[in-house]
Amino acid sequence: MPRSTLTEAGSAPEAVWLRLKKRLFSSPLNTLLTVLIAWLLLMVVPPTVEWLLLDADFRSSSAQGCADSSGACWAFIAEKHRLILFGLYPYDEQWRPLLASCILLGLIVLSAVRRFWRPSLALVWLVGLLLVGVLMWGGAFGLSHVENTRWGGLPLTLILATFGIAFAFPLGVLLALGRRSRMPLIKAVCVLYIELIRGVPLISLLFMSSVMLPLFLPEGFSIDKLLRAQIAIILFAAAYIAETVRGGLQSIPRGQYEGADSLGLSYWQQMRKIVLPQALAVVIGPLVSIFISLFKDTSLVVVIGIFDLTQSAKAALADPQWRGFGAEAYLFIGLIYFFFCFSISRYSLAVEKRLQGAHGSTHYLS
What is the structure's pLDDT at 359? Predict the structure, then answer.
């Protein structure tokens, strides 16, 4: 073997050790933290793996069988997964919310691919949402009608989040533009709305939409509870999106506006072609954080009796034959939330890297 190869083979472990020493043992404090974290992992990881997998029960047909196991009772999830995922939707018709969820996810994935960013995508969304409505409500094409009071689980969470983001984003952009408007009345209205909504928690808006709003409606006129919750989510998210987009607009150099004026562009042309693309590119990270928070905040509709994932899990735990497995139920829905939120965050990172690679910075023009 050549001497250079031997030297490289011998130096590789030394290089690894030097790298570890530099990162983990570079100072007494780092050494202490490394030892403490290693001890914590040794104390936590093996028992967790044993509870999750090694000692877990995957096959029992009753809670009594799981009681004899010292690990997790995943048999509970196997028994109740349809109730958790689809709520009170009729058991024999649960293929419909499953197909509706697949359509929604397909639309979202399709919209994430740049090559499909064409005007025809709006038509695809319209057709897809019509199919989702027909599948969920029924009453057409031989499908039995199902009231939305029986919707629940993952499809309902996806519907609330998808419509929430789809409507809150353009409303938030308009509010951000209105807050920077030179017209005093429009600016005052936008500022009042944004500060008022951002000054109260989402749960209070949900209570208002569920309890107070019907009191102000004309007699004989009512709005569905699910629709009221959806409107509250949209209004809440739009205020936060508006402030984020406003920050992006403030970061755009004045020269961009002057350059657009010199080209003779109208206000809306300036916003659509020059200013907003740059401003949105700057705030992709904060916007995605809002979208992730919105997706998780849909679980708050449980307080007004809507069967989202959380409420469906509580309903599954209410079965007298399967009580005492809350850790498994909430871990299951927690993994579902984590999957979607992690996917959104990774996609946003990919978009940011693509924009930075194409333009050298988060600004389109310097």
Answer: 53
